[in-house]
Write a structure and sequence with these properties.
The protein is α/β, with parallel strands linked by helices and 361 residues long. The protein has 14 helices and eight strands. An eight-stranded mixed beta sheet has the order 3-2-4-1-5-6-7-8, sandwiched between helices. Helix 7 packs across helix 13, helix 8 packs parallel to helix 9 and helix 12 runs parallel beside helix 13.
């Protein structure tokens, strides 16, 4: 049966009617390019959705990963269980202290408590359960109003390029390896770029991750090339050999070191030259155990290189999980992944609702 007129012939070659005039070579090439672009965009959309859906199925990992923060905030239930109107000021003062200790930060803690106080005064909250529900709603609104775009933005053509930046010791290279594991599990063809040319063990560490995840890797073979050169080669290879994802590691640097921070700008420029639009994502890895101290790092990196999302690591080892809310509220940049353990699957896509339920069950 002949394909209907609105079906492009190259999408259904065997059923094209002989009576339809064949398109010119130029038009055929354009059609093929459009189809390829549409196919690639669809691939990245599905990939982002699959990773997000996997996060919802792994909610137990998130719950266990925030156990220390949850224990720190267990006092909230104790405060609210026997709450009565006469105790409002004392209870809210203690609640404010609990939020501060968990690194929600003064601004957020005061704002939340003031909101609760107003709602209690207006008669909107009449029980401890209602106060807790309002507390959770306030935190969720803070996260979703400024940091709702938690899915990776991988663009519309291959390869999607993700640049990983951060200070030494934050877990950059490990996070990159765990990202590669997630992408490979969803069927993506992954290329790593060993752009950390300062740290002697970084290349070896990334080669281990490449072998572990079944990914390809671009390295500085003679150990003399600069990071921009390695990353440019990787992006070009990714484009030439049809990789889906190029994950670019970079050297750890203090946000106060102007020269090294400027190198990140050069890295971005050479990637964009090799592939217009690259990098699709610039993810800053932050050590969750530093709590609110990470804010200044985040501001400096964002000012220099333009951060599109955060990876917060080591949150399973700290009771300062409130920093997740603080950093989103302060900078308006979404948290995209959280590290809640040492296992290869313990880098979890961030889900605001699951996070709130994990710290306030």
């Amino acid at each position: 049966m002949a394909a209907p007129p609105h079906v492009l012939p190259f999408l259904s070659p065997s059923s094209a009617s002989a009576s339809l005039r064949a398109p010119s070579g130029r038009h055929r090439a354009a059609d093929l390019r459009c189809a390829a672009a549409a196919g690639q965009a669809g691939f990245f959309t599905r990939l982002g959705r699959l990773i997000k859906e996997k996060a919802k199925s792994d909610v137990d990992k998130l719950f266990s990963g925030f156990s220390k923060t949850r224990e720190n905030l267990s006092v909230v239930d104790e405060l609210l269980t026997y709450w009565n109107l006469a105790d409002t000021d004392r209870v809210l003062d203690d609640l404010e202290e609990a939020l501060l200790v968990s690194d929600f930060g003064p601004k957020i803690s005061f704002r939340i408590v003031d909101t609760l106080r107003d709602e209690i005064r207006d008669g909107k909250l009449k029980s401890g359960a209602e106060i807790k529900a309002s507390l959770k709603r306030c935190i969720l609104e803070l996260l979703t109003s400024k940091g709702s775009n938690t899915e990776l933005k991988l663009g519309f053509r291959k390869p999607a390029v993700i640049m990983i930046v951060g200070v030494n010791g934050g877990g950059k290279t490990t996070s990159l390896g765990k990202l590669a594991y997630r992408f490979k599990n969803e069927g993506a063809k992954v290329l790593m770029a060993a752009g950390d040319t300062f740290r002697a063990a970084a290349r070896d560490q990334l080669e281990v991750w490449a072998e572990r995840t079944g990914s390809e890797i671009v390295i500085d073979k003679d150990k003399k090339a600069q990071a921009p050169s390695v990353l440019s080669q990787a992006v070009k290879r990714g484009k030439r050999e049809g990789f889906d994802i190029v994950l670019c590691d970079t050297s750890g640097r203090l946000h106060t070191n102007y020269g090294l921070m400027e190198e990140l700008v050069t890295c971005k420029k050479v990637m964009a030259k090799a592939l217009p639009g690259a990098p699709n994502e610039v993810l800053l890895v932050l050590d969750g155990t530093t709590g609110l101290n990470m804010l200044q790092q985040a501001r400096e990196f964002n000012d220099v290189v333009g951060i599109t999302g955060f990876i917060l690591t080591k949150l399973d080892g700290t009771a300062r999980g409130g920093c997740v809310v603080s950093i989103v509220d302060e900078l308006g940049i979404p948290v995209k992944f959280v590290g809640v353990g040492e296992g290869v699957e313990d880098l979890q896509p961030f889900d605001a609702e699951a996070f709130v339920e994990a710290i306030f069950p």
